[in-house]
Specification:
503 residues, alpha/beta, Rossmann fold, 3 domains, six-stranded parallel sheet, 18 helices, 15 strands, 43% helix, disordered N terminus
């Protein structure tokens, strides 16, 4: 699906945003971040290449005129058009695919990943790759690779069903290679992973510089999600090998990497990124858009805001709240935020957990709110229970609203909070409950922490600085004049005004 939303300004620098499951088709923190960038730069011309589900998703954001086009790149839905190659072209493509698979599974073959990837990209745009990967021959190639002597995956005795499953998952993951890559300006991938594929191709074929921003660590989140996946180890070995080598290729070839926190740079450096090409650029908020929330609710209330998703680990939050209720029976937990499509079963599981713990109406799933500030004002303490985060908007927005927070120590949370909130280990309900009880028992401390949190936001995380930072990066990368920053140099962050969705 292509959406025309205006026209680029004549002569304006051109930026292609590369997204996956976020802007402009869904809400959430990364989407807010994308919107604030394009809204803050009316002098630049933007295109969005969005990896989506089936390509029929409606726009969730009103696009400003500087977003000239949205190209939807569906991973699922109907198979891409094209026909399988024949003869010599088939042999060449299957040879490249064999090298590609060998790189995923054999550490001695990893250097072949990049060259094979770009051969697959050319075949994808010719309409050959997807049909080829849906063929029996592709399944046989994979079976042959992972049964090579000496490979660890061979010991797991992969089956034909494993080969069919892994081949199908790879075919879907590689579909973005069929998109026409950027030819001018700058490509800006707003996460790692498959959204980067058109950007890597644009760099390889047309020399378009690639900028990477990681809010969370995409590779780490794939490791977390595949721990609980239904696939057998041979399938997971293929997919995790792909995501690992794709991350490495991206880190090595990006002109600049701008993680949303310093924690992410550890993964990026380990993945092969040049430390001199990593510059931390924090998210932040406009303190005028998120003013102090005013008086706390009458009773002891905890509030949480975000999307209902396993990465947010709401089970730990609910279990921690059950421990709080044992000592503060009047306590309530109010949870604000939508449930993404496909996440209904997780929400039902969380609701059932609350019922099984006897929490009854003390836990409320309240859905999306028109004004996200209401979610923060609803609590005496604002919670964050995630097992993975970047530099979370919900946390710094709550801080700007002057609320004390209890958060898990993941991603850039500790960098955001400093000493203005309590930070606890992830997946530890008892530690979270003890932190909450400490704050509920000490209203003066809560108030002091809330005031300090707002001051921290005002001093360190502002909208204008980050928009100006990225504008300068875009213009210099497009002109070929960008100079390496000092390793580890942070820049202040940005955020939009009040939102209608938590996420």
């Amino acid at each position: 699906m292509h959406v025309q939303s205006g026209a680029p300004h004549p002569g304006a620098a051109h930026v292609t945003l590369l997204t996956e499951g976020t802007y402009p088709h869904s809400h959430g923190g990364v989407s807010v971040w994308c919107d604030q960038l394009v809204q803050g730069m009316p002098d630049l011309a933007f295109q969005v290449m969005a990896v989506t589900g089936n390509g029929r998703e409606p726009l969730a954001w009103e696009l400003p005129p500087q977003v000239a086009e949205v190209v939807s790149v569906p991973m699922w839905g109907p198979a891409p058009p094209g026909s399988p190659p024949r003869g010599r072209r088939e042999r060449l493509l299957m040879t490249a695919y064999e090298h590609f698979l060998a790189a995923l599974l054999d550490p001695a073959e990893e250097e072949g990943f990049g060259p094979a990837l770009y051969v697959l990209a050319a075949a994808a745009r010719d309409g050959l790759l997807s049909p080829a990967l849906r063929s029996d021959r592709a399944v046989r190639v994979l079976a042959g690779v992972w049964n090579r002597p000496g490979l660890e995956v061979r010991e797991a005795r992969p089956t034909l069903h494993d080969a069919v499953t892994a081949t199908s998952l790879l075919e879907h993951a590689l579909r973005p290679l069929a998109a026409e890559p950027p030819r001018t300006g700058v490509s800006h991938a707003v996460s790692g992973g498959i959204a980067v594929l058109p950007g890597l191709t644009g760099l390889h074929e047309h020399g378009v510089p690639l900028l990477l921003t990681e809010h969370g660590v995409y590779l780490r989140e794939r490791y977390l999600s595949y721990r609980s996946s239904p696939y057998r180890w041979p399938v997971r070995a293929v997919l995790l090998g792909f995501f690992r080598l794709l991350a490495g290729e991206t880190y090595r070839r990006a002109a600049l990497i701008t993680p949303g926190n310093r924690y992410n740079r550890l993964w990026e450096e380990q993945g092969g990124a040049d430390p001199a090409l990593i510059r931390t650029v924090y998210n932040g908020v406009d303190p005028a858009a998120f003013p102090a929330a005013g008086p706390e609710p009458a009773g002891p209330v905890l509030s949480w805001a975000g999307r209902v998703d396993p990465i947010k680990d709401l089970q730990t939050l609910i279990r921690a709240f059950a421990l709080v209720r044992e000592r503060v029976p009047a306590a309530r937990l109010r949870m604000f935020g939508g449930t993404p499509r496909g996440g209904e079963a997780y929400r039902e599981h969380c609701e059932e957990l609350a019922r099984s713990l006897g929490l009854g109406e003390a836990v409320a799933f309240e859905g999306r709110v028109d004004d996200i500030r209401d979610a923060y004002a609803a609590g005496s303490v604002v919670m964050l229970s995630s097992i993975s985060e970047g530099f979370p908007f919900t946390l710094i927005e709550a801080m700007s609203c002057g609320r004390a927070t209890v958060s898990t120590d993941v991603g850039g949370v500790r960098e955001a909070v400093g000493d203005t909130g309590l930070v606890v280990p992830p997946r530890d309900p008892r530690a979270m409950a003890e932190a909450v009880l400490t704050l509920l028992a000490d209203p003066p401390r809560r108030a002091a922490m809330g005031e300090a949190a707002r001051l921290r936001v005002i001093e360190q995380f502002t909208l204008r600085q980050t928009v100006d930072t990225f504008r300068a990066i875009y213009l210099e990368l497009a002109a070929g004049t960008y100079r390496k920053p000092d390793a580890g140099t942070p820049a202040a962050g940005a955020a939009a005004g009040p939102r209608s969705v938590a996420g």
